[in-house]
Structures are given as structure tokens and as C-alpha cells.
Write a structure and sequence with these properties.
Elements: E1 2-5, H1 10-16, E2 23-26, H2 38-45, E3 58-59, E4 78-80, H3 89-92, H4 94-99, E5 102-104
Parallel strand pairs: 1-2, 1-3, 4-5
Length: 105
């Protein structure tokens, strides 16, 4: 899994506890963008033996605005929401929901 965040490693640290291989990208190292970019993913993936990977999950930065507008070369876009976040998210972030191949609650 490749995990994006502006500054912290909180998500990557929690995921690593599962034993899954995790690569952290902090965009603060690249100007503090609110999204990942394809060249940053390419750099992170260069350390992965992709021949032995069946599924590569890229967690973009945790907002629902910027990530919807940038192509990372992915096969699918998945939006993951929790019920307590509210039912207004599709109205607030229409691009993310229009570009999603799947929405998981």
C-alpha cells in the first residue's frame, strides 16, 4: 500500500501494524500539495517488486477535493466514507463522486 499525507505518518503506521507492506509519501517534501501526483507515485513504486503484487492500493491525501482531479494511472477510484461523516458529502464533493468507480460505506 502507498499512503499519502501532507505531513504525518499516522495512517501508514496504523496500516503497518497489520503486517502489510506500506510506503509513506509526505507531500510536504514536494511542496505540501493536497493530493498525490503520478511522478510521486512512480518514485514510491520504484521500490516495489510489482511482479509479485496482485493489488496495489494508493491512499491519496485524505480530502475529497484535490484527489478527484488528478490522474495517477490507477485502474479504479474508490471513495471510502464512514456514516458519521454525514450524508452531504456527494453534494459537497461532486467531482469525487462522479469520478468514483465505487463508493464504500
Amino acid at each position: 500500500m502507498i499512503v499519502g499525507d501532507i505531513c504525518t505518518t499516522h495512517d501508514a503506521d496504523r496500516l503497518a501494524e497489520s503486517g502489510a507492506p506500506v510506503i509513506q509519501i509526505n507531500t510536504d517534501d514536494f511542496g505540501g500539495d493536497c493530493h498525490l501526483a503520478a511522478h510521486v507515485i512512480e518514485r514510491a513504486a520504484s521500490g516495489i517488486d510489482l511482479e509479485n503484487v496482485d493489488l496495489l492500493i494508493v491512499e491519496n491525501i485524505g480530502n475529497l477535493v484535490c484527489p478527484a482531479s488528478f490522474d495517477l494511472g490507477q485502474h479504479n477510484n474508490v471513495v471510502l466514507l464512514s456514516v458519521p461523516e454525514g450524508d452531504d458529502k456527494p453534494a459537497k464533493y461532486p467531482v469525487m463522486f462522479r469520478t468514483a468507480d465505487m463508493v464504500m460505506l
